[in-house]
Every structure is written in structure tokens, then in C-alpha cells.
TrEMBL record:
The modification N6-(pyridoxal phosphate)lysine is found at K203. GO terms for biological process: isoleucine biosynthetic process; L-leucine biosynthetic process; L-valine biosynthetic process. This is Branched-chain-amino-acid aminotransferase. Pathway: Amino-acid biosynthesis; L-isoleucine biosynthesis; L-isoleucine from 2-oxobutanoate: step 4/4; Amino-acid biosynthesis; L-valine biosynthesis; L-valine from pyruvate: step 4/4; Amino-acid biosynthesis; L-leucine biosynthesis; L-leucine from 3-methyl-2-oxobutanoate: step 4/4. It comes from Caballeronia hypogeia. It is an enzyme of class 2 (transferase). GO terms for molecular function: L-isoleucine-2-oxoglutarate transaminase activity; L-leucine-2-oxoglutarate transaminase activity; L-valine-2-oxoglutarate transaminase activity. The keyword Transferase applies.
Length: 364
């Protein structure tokens, strides 16, 4: 899928580009989120001018006033997506218009400026083109972080009249340590991530800020990630801090919590549901209680559990710890369906497998 768009982004490249051998070194052994490409895409919005000043420019710090609205009231949203290098050297994005749509939905929930989908994708595409040498091949990818923040200097509590949109990029390798086939998760009975009517379905920084304490608790329990339960009854499984969850049942079906407004509508989640249904796998988007999970893991009704999201793609959950004890999923290792889904999804993303639903967006 490709739309013809005149480019609206002016490009000014850096006078001090990272030397080629240094780029090669960073993309062959990337550290997640620490090394960034040379450029960024930016755009500004004001209530008088709308979107303007679209450019790709050398990456640099922002200069913001201490009264900047985002620093006071956390009006900020973001996206997470990746550019992949195929074996033929071509570069592509995966379903970028889905990220653009979700960005608009997040902006609406946080009372922020509406960014047209084509402009969002153009910003991402323009940056990737300029920094194309930074897209790793093999198992790596270029992680892209589009975000928007309220930039007006004003302490009154209302939606800002000014916003900055920006895209930055960093080369990444596998999210979890090499050789690790599954993760241990902590089910928090004390903290929740989102409540009905809140911001759970928006990708805003504030959701993450509120989840960090539970993540710290998980780490103290020797776990890699937190699983949150619903805020009202502390009974229903929702999602992890940054990934959606799937349960593989003994009849071969998949269960995943429904998009009730309190969980983030993952694009990986949606893609897995579509791929599975195409293969005739039954997918139940239905509430699933933590007590049922525990009983089903013991009886063998739950065979596999995996988490999914852009950063970690598909990751098996091997062990579950909670206030009253712990239990294992299957033999604690990645199961066959989890592995198959991961291979299929990454195969499509990297151009190794057929792309029947036209999800791959090639960048020339
Ligand atoms: C981004 C995110 C996900 C995963 O979404 P993808 O589109 O699959 O990357 C899941 N949960 C939360 C809370 C997120 O922020």
C-alpha cells in the first residue's frame, strides 16, 4: 500500500554525521533506546496556524520554558513502530497507518491537536529516508518513536494551545536477552493500570508513569514484567505494562481480553487475531479471570501464554508469580503455537513470508 503525497518536510542534514564505521558498530550491537540516529522529524501546531514548520533536521535538545504545559500536566502521547530491512536491502514499515490512527485517538483523549494520518506517516517516512543507513538487517530493526507534547508556556489548567510533534529513531536488537525463551510475570494485586473512563486505551506517557511502581515491585519479585488486573474488581486479566496478552487453550483456541476501553489496542494484537482467524484458529476476545488462569494452568487447559507488542514482538510467559504463590505455564518454555505465530509475524514484517493482507509499507 502506498499513497502519493507531495513531500511537505524540508530536509536539513547534519554537518557532523556519525562516521559510517560507527553506524555499522551501533547497528550490529544495538542497546535498546540509548543510541539514536543523527536526525529527527519535527512539526509544530498552534491554534492560530495549525500544523506548520514540518522538517527533518539534525537531532538536538528542545529548548522549553519551565512553565511548559507538558512539564506541569503531562499532556503527552506517543507511538512505537519499527522500520525493517529486508534481505534485498529494501526498507519497510509495518501497518504505519494503524499507528497514525491510534495516535489520533490518543490525541483526542488527551485533548491534543489532531494530526492527519498522512502527515504522521510522512513524518516517519521522511526521517527513515534520511537515516536509512541506520536500519539494521538480520534480527534488528530501527525503532521509531513519534510523540507529541503540549508546548505552551502557561500554568492554567486547560488544553494547551501549542504542540510539538517529533519522531526520533534508534537501532534495536532483540528486546529480551539473547537465549531467553520466556519471561516471568508478576500479577499485581495492589496497583492497577487504568480504570473505566480513564486513559487506558490511549498511548500516553502518564499511563507508563503510573505503572512504574508495579514494574519495580515485579523486578523485586524476580519478574520481568507486570500483569495488571482490572481496577473495579481486581479479578479480570487486562494486559502488561506495555504488551497485550494471549492464552492458548488445550482445544487450540486463543483467548485475549477484549478492548473494553481500559487496555491499549495493540496493532500486534490485532494482527495476530487476523492471522489466526485466517488460519481457522478460534480467537475469543473475552474477559478471562486471574483465578481461572491459575486453575487452567494447573489443569493443563491453558497450554501457552504469550505477550505481544511492537518492541518485544511475541514473547512467551513461562512463569507467573502473585501475592499467594506462583505457577508455571506448560514446561515454562516457549510453546509451539507461540513460536509459530512469532515466526509468521516477523516473517511478514521482514519480507520473508507472503503478505496476504498488504501490511508491509515499502519505503523507496
Ligand atoms: C504500545 C502498547 C502495547 C502494544 O501495542 P503495539 O501496537 O502492538 O505495539 C500494549 N500495551 C500498552 C500499554 C502499550 O502502550
Amino acid at each position: 500500500m502506498k499513497t502519493d503525497m507531495p513531500t511537505q518536510f524540508s530536509v536539513s542534514t547534519t554537518a557532523t554525521p556519525t562516521p559510517h564505521d560507527q553506524i555499522v558498530a551501533s547497528i550490529s550491537n544495538p542497546a535498546f533506546g540509548r543510541v539514536f540516529t543523527d536526525h529527527m522529524a519535527t512539526m509544530r501546531w498552534t491554534n492560530t496556524l495549525g500544523w506548520h514548520d514540518a522538517k527533518v533536521e539534525p537531532r538536538r535538545p528542545f529548548q522549553i520554558d519551565p512553565a511548559c504545559a507538558v512539564l506541569q500536566y503531562a499532556q503527552e502521547i506517543f507511538e512505537g513502530m519499527k522500520a525493517y530491512r529486508g534481505e534485498d536491502g529494501s526498507i519497510s514499515l509495518f501497518r504505519p497507518f494503524e499507528n497514525a490512527k491510534r495516535f489520533r485517538a490518543s490525541a483526542a483523549r488527551l485533548s491534543m491537536a489532531d494530526l492527519p494520518e498522512a502527515l504522521f506517516v510522512e513524518a516517519v517516512e521522511s526521517l527513515v529516508k534520511v537515516d536509512r543507513d541506520w536500519v539494521p538487517g538480520g534480527d534488528g530493526s530501527l525503532y521509531l518513536r513519534p510523540f507529541m507534547f503540549a508546548s505552551e508556556s502557561f500554568l492554567g489548567v486547560r488544553a494547551s494551545h501549542e504542540y510539538v510533534f517529533c519522531v526520533i529513531a534508534c537501532p534495536v536488537g532483540p528486546y529480551f536477552k539473547a537465549g531467553k525463551t520466556s519471561v516471568a510475570v508478576w500479577v499485581s494485586d495492589q496497583y492497577t493500570r487504568a480504570a473505566p473512563g480513564g486513559t487506558g486505551s490511549a498511548k500516553c506517557g502518564g499511563n507508563y508513569a503510573a505503572s512504574l511502581i508495579a514494574q519495580t515491585e515485579a523486578a523485586a519479585k524476580g519478574c520481568d514484567q507486570v500483569v495488571f488486573l482490572d481496577a473495579a474488581e481486581h479479578k479480570w486479566i487486562e494486559e502488561m505494562g506495555g504488551m497485550n496478552l494471549f492464552f492458548v487453550m488445550d482445544d487450540g483456541s486463543l483467548t485475549t481480553p477484549p478492548l473494553s476501553g481500559t487496555i491499549l489496542p495493540g496493532i500486534t494484537r490485532a494482527s495476530i487475531i487476523e492471522l489466526a482467524r485466517r488460519e481457522g484458529i478460534v480467537v475469543n476476545e473475552t474477559p478471562y479471570a486471574f483465578d481461572a488462569w491459575r486453575a487452567d494452568a494447573a489443569s493443563g487447559r491453558v497450554r501457552e501464554v504469550f505477550a505481544c507488542g511492537t518492541a518485544a514482538v511475541v514473547t512467551a510467559v513461562g512463569e507467573v508469580r502473585h501475592a499467594a504463590g506462583e505457577f508455571q505455564i506448560g514446561n515454562g518454555e516457549e510453546g509451539p503455537l507461540t513460536q509459530r505465530i512469532r515466526t509468521q509475524l516477523t516473517g511478514i514484517q521482514r519480507g520473508k513470508l507472503a503478505d496476504p493482507l498488504e501490511w508491509v509499507y515499502r519505503i523507496d
